[in-house]
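Exam revision sheet. Question 4 asks you to relate a sequence to its structure. Input first:
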Amino acid sequence: MSRGKGTLFALVAIGAMMASPVVAATTSGAVAATDERAPAAVTDVTGFAGTDGVEISWALSASDFVRPSPTGSDFTSGGSFSNVNDVAGYNVYRDDELAGSVKAGETAFVDSNAIGSSIIYVVTAVDAAGNESDHSEEVIISLGPAPVAVIETPDGDYGTIDPDDFDTQTINIENAATVDDANLTVTITVVGEGFSSSDDSIDLAPGEEGSVEITFDAEDVDNLNGTYVGTVTVKTTDPDNRKVVYDVTAEIVDGIGPTEIDITPASVTFAATVIGNTRTIELTIANIGRPTLEGEVSISGDAEFTIDVDSYSLDTDGEEVVTVTFAPTATVTSTATITITSNDEGAPSTDVEVSGRGTAAPEGPGVVAAEVSKVQLTLDTTLPTEQADIDALRDQIIAALSEALGIPISRFVDVTLTEGSVIVNFTITQTVTEEGEPTAAEAVATLQAVIADTATANPITAIAPVTAVVDNSETVVLQPEDADGNPVLGWFTRGAFGNQVAVDDFFAFAGGYGKADGVDDDFDAKFDIAGPDGDSDPDGKVGIDDFFAFAENYGTVVANADEIIAALQ
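Answer key, structure tokens:
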């Protein structure tokens, strides 16, 4: 009866355990101390004599794996588990004495203290409870007679190395053993940029000598300036002289510097610009360091500013010119930021601030406003296909224009012909060569009248019928600027004596000095280039403030002089 009740209780307990899911908590830990079962034995043990000592390796014990193990006796609800491994480590025995131990999961051991002509090794697996497996099969290592390594190392200081040059130091090695078969094996390892060895290993019989060259080569580090350090490690099969380590160092000072970027100018400021016009300033990215400076260029901020470069890659001394364009659309100050990234560790990202102000009309001292007379003439004919014929037609049209308008051929510039109906674009200069000769504006008006008079023959329509005459004349506003786009004041002669603020401008300024608006009839506002205290607002008098402003600009070259001179002509 009691047995039946016990059986029934057991079945109920098992049924409850199967019907109810167990919520298990798992932790990591060592195998329980009550474990009395040893791990499985180690297999596949091998060994050989290396320069670091006898190297023993094996396959993992079959018990070397992680498994979950219950930490309590209640299997019906809320049981917890820990991750355990039946192997805690491996013991390596040399001639029945412990040579060393390694952790679970490791499969190799180097016995650097091995001495003797023949050594027997075995390996065991051990668990956390101290249970040790059976010994592996024995591995017999024959070392033979011990060699005697005599190693002479250099000081390792290579000093200063010139670009494209190298220097070599020598390690001398001798096997001083006198017993037959006491052979010496030496391995050499070099760590350090620019350093290398002539041999990775050498073998020496008893009484033999050898050498290994350790070289530092500047070309291996691209001749880059800097101090280079490293280590040389010499290992041998001599049990009494297993390893020698020494430091090496070299320096390059006349080679190539590290990656370095140079950006000029540091900021970009545009002079006041009339709405509808554009200005450009060049920003230069230069590589003043090692080869291959590279990066990206981007701009953020107001849309009035644009750039024409988005990336660059420069060799040593290379330059990339970024053209920054300002096209104002309103009478406000606009700003933007140009961001230049690079592989220069000291300047991974550089911001260049950009600003400029739009204006409705020309303003400021030194500003030049010139009327440029441009015309577009359409002829009902076809453009020749041969260049020589195109040039001949161009010359014929210029001659006809000169005859019809009564101005010399030299005053027709920038004459271009395009395909389709022949469209002739040209500019008439303002220069009047003879008394009574029409101005450019008068010449344009005469051309329109001549074409409109269809009853009278003229040399232009004799070439081909004219279907359209368009007056594209415009007022060009220009500010004399230096190479960085900064306004230049005091260039009064406007190119009559060159493109630099010079002595002729001084004499012109001296003639207007001391005169005031409303007081002197011959007052000339162009000499009034500054205001009191040196500010930029003219005050209607040519005085000491203007003199100091002129002196500050004296000698400056006007970078856009040719453009201004052409507009004035």
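Marking note for examiners. The chain has five domains: 20-142, 149-252, 267-359, 368-476, 479-568.
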